[in-house]
Amino acid sequence: xxxxxxxxxxxxxxxxxxKKRFQEFRVPIRKGMTVLQGLLHIKEKIDPTLSIRxxxxxxxxxxxxxMINGLPRLACYTLIEELKTRTVVVExxxxxxxxxxxxxxxxxxxxxxxxxxxxxxxxxxxVQEKSNTMYLQSDEELVRYxxxxxxxxxxxxxxxxxxxxxxxxxxxxxxxxxxxxYYADSRDEAGVDRLKPLGDGSSLLRCHFAASCSQVCPxxxxxxxxxxxxxxxxxxxx
Length: 238
Ligand code: SF4
Ligand code: FES
What we know:
Layout: E1 4-11, E2 21-28, H1 35-46, E3 65-68, E4 71-74, H2 80-83, E5 87-91, E6 98-100, E7 103-104, H3 107-115, H4 126-129, H5 139-143, H6 156-160, H7 162-166, H8 173-183, H9 212-216, H10 223-237
Parallel strand pairs: 1-5
Antiparallel strand pairs: 1-2, 3-4, 3-5, 6-7
Helix pairs in contact: 3-8, 8-10
The protein binds iron/sulfur cluster and FE2/S2 (inorganic) cluster.
């Protein structure tokens, strides 16, 4: 068991000099300590100016994503001892503009998420207006989309995507997975209208299938699979 590790944290303050630099901190660790707890130790005991974003501390809210030793991970879900290193390198998520230190700007990411209409589209409104009714679904219908519904919008897949890195107009794995999630939901009535904006080559066909998105997802969502399933639907129906 290590007793102390070095945290190498990327610092950036646009209101100061706007230059990126690494700052090192010695952090005492105990068994079961997470990278988020290490960063909070720095903030509370060493440097209160360090900016980080977090909320739930239990891999649910999706707000503590950052690059940890080169990989996009949730800081609250990453045990320091599992990294098996004496140096923990922490940087803001790639493919996102930096606001300050480890805090990144998710506006473009959420705009892309919103662009796929991530909600059920229905012709009827009766069920939605009555609190004592519901859309029924079989187990088979649920299985078609449920893994994609576990997305917590943490942006790790977006940070890992090599296409997003070179082309900011690419919708990215998260939004495309959500496009499939609603397309595959038997309760949704938008049908092929959901495929039309995706089938013009602007997004779907630019995926190289590196599958790095699926490797880093902390919730077991497989966006690379969703993109392949969407491609199949577009080819069959256009
Ligand atoms: S698909 Fe996974 S990695 Fe991507 S935003 Fe959703 S939960 Fe995060
Ligand atoms: S603090 Fe909510 S996911 Fe890490």
